[in-house]
Amino acid sequence: MSRVFTAELVDGVMAKHDRIERRHRLLSARRVVCFVLALCLCQDGTEGADESMGE
Length: 55
Prior knowledge:
Blueprint: H1 7-16, H2 29-41, H3 49-52
């Protein structure tokens, strides 16, 4: 299985748009970007889940 978003790609995009990490945090900027990408890729369309549960 090949990776679509490599670390080099994420770092390159952040550098291109001048979003290089300036402070060291618990989560690196690369990990936050990967987390947000994972959230976007794993959406399953549950916007109306509370309606389907009878609430």
